Amino acid sequence: MKKGIELKINGDNYEVLISPNNTLLEVLRDKLGLMGTKQGCDLGACGACTVLINGEAYLSCIMLAMDAVGKEIMTIEGIEEDGLLHPLQTAFVEKGGLQCGFCTPGMILTAKTILDEEEHPTEDTIKKKMSGNLCRCTGYKKIVEAVMSVSEQTGEGA
Ligand code: FES
Ligand code: FES
């Protein structure tokens, strides 16, 4: 049986008709057309579907959309600031932290949670906290360099 719910995504409210077993990833991509959140393994193993819920990273492929009702959801579409790329997005481009780009939205959102929590994380902390985000192009070195470069931009916030 379909059910109408309201989701708050990137500051906007969306009314959407879902099945109770729809994942948040299905609703974002298939019902709302927010294609920035990627479907990789669909099993909770790759991090491609990472979104932020109340500022924390969640895997939207293993989360029911209904469980996101009443919470602040952020997808990669919502990370820009006043029409400009977020510093992490700029850093990924400038440092070559992406190849095919499939893992990039999840990587950037996870990186945001790290920098929100700690302004200057160590390289080891970044590696550990991003270990759930897999890159099939294996560009990990440049990804970590990109996150480090933002953490070194003191006072600019991430
Ligand atoms: S698609 Fe969700 S963890 Fe891989
Ligand atoms: S850039 Fe291709 S999967 Fe990471």
From TrEMBL:
Q: Which UniProt keywords apply?
A: 2Fe-2S, Iron, Iron-sulfur, Metal-binding, Oxidoreductase
Pfam families noted in UniProt = Fer2, Fer2_2
Residues in 2Fe-2S ferredoxin-type domain copies = 3-79
GO: which molecular function terms?
2 iron, 2 sulfur cluster binding; metal ion binding; oxidoreductase activity
Origin: domain of life: Bacteria
Is-annotated flag, keyword DNA damage? Answer: no
Does the record bear Magnesium in its keywords? no
Q: Which InterPro entries match?
A: 2Fe-2S-bd, 2Fe-2S-bd_dom_sf, 2Fe-2S_ferredoxin-like_sf, 2Fe-2S_ferredoxin-type, 2Fe2S_fd_BS, Beta-grasp_dom_sf, Diverse_Oxidoreductases
User: Which SUPFAM superfamilies does this chain map to?
Assistant: 2Fe-2S ferredoxin-like (SSF54292), CO dehydrogenase ISP C-domain like (SSF47741)
What name has this protein been given in UniProt? (2Fe-2S)-binding protein
Organism for this UniProt entry: Candidatus Desulfacyla euxinica
